[in-house]
# Entry
Amino acid sequence: METKKWIVDIDVDKKNSYQQLKEAAHYLQRNEVIAFPTETVYGLGANATSDAAVAKIFAAKGRPSDNPLIVHIAELGQLLEAVEMVSDKAQKLIEAFWPGPLTIIFKKKDGIFSSLVTAGLDTVAIRMPDHPLAIALIRAAGLPIAAPSANCSGKPSPTTAHHVWEDLQGRIAGIVDGGETGVGLESTVLDCTSGEFPIILRPGGITKEAIERVIGKVQLDPAMMNEKQTPKSPGMKYTHYAPNVPMYLMAGNWEKYNELIKQKRQAGLKVGILATAETSKYYDADLVLSCGERNHLHTVAHCLYDTLRDFNKSNVDVIFAETFPKDGVGAAIMNRLEKAAGHRWLESDPRNN
Ligand code: AMP
Ligand code: MG
# Structure
């Protein structure tokens, strides 16, 4: 299949931009699958009401069919049409964070979405993206749009149109190229259907602390802390975001690891380090890449996937990655790093490795 590319100015009101988006929207109306930018990562969108359209998302990504999709909307009316009810807490969250990187799980109405979107669950995950092109595209299509990240399943999510092209060219009908995405990590997924306290199923762009300021206590899905528990969010059980070679997390300062790096290199392995701007000069490795400033975790979130993809283009045999405190956006960064590393940590005393 030929993959069309629409290069669209972020200023939607520019005449050419709008025409390009309208053309892309026609593809969605014809039940084709296209990628588009959001404020988190690039999404791979399709008409959420059509089995045929949604099936194409799973096929293009190679995504397991038991992993439900997030439905993206542009108007609150689309939410009210689709869900049984919006609780008081959900209402407050919508007022505080939509449009934005917070996905909320609701009890769904039957007969609205393709059952492939919800993987047969009686709930549906919905969000309103905070990106002018995403909103204009969804509006122009006049449809709710199911959209997971626009990468091959298991790989780091795409933060540029070029990443999407690398993964899905020839497998999807088109890509709306609107430049780099902002947050760089996926949305926070919050289940508002279960019991007294909402549960964070996936940490993301909106932090637990920010949510609690609006609705009080929320819980973390215990599976996020313990890899052996089954997550409530089906997608969280899969390895994700993984580079092509094994990655290990470093528990502590760089000083401890240069000896281990030396040993690995003497054993003939090429060692890559995922470092930060502040620390990258200290490592004696084959390739040291910085994923942003340790003191500005938002830059780390923004650059993380791009840096993981850069390792895939290098010839390293193993990656050691720095780690971060789990406060604020650090929770989402560490969730992705732990998954990318398959929860493998280096011993804090490297002589034990
Ligand atoms: P992605 O589409 O790759 O951003 O992933 C969407 C995430 O939301 C996955 O972890 C899904 O398992 C999760 N999700 C989507 N719908 C639901 C739902 N109804 N209940 C629980 N988790 C969901
Ligand atoms: Mg994804």
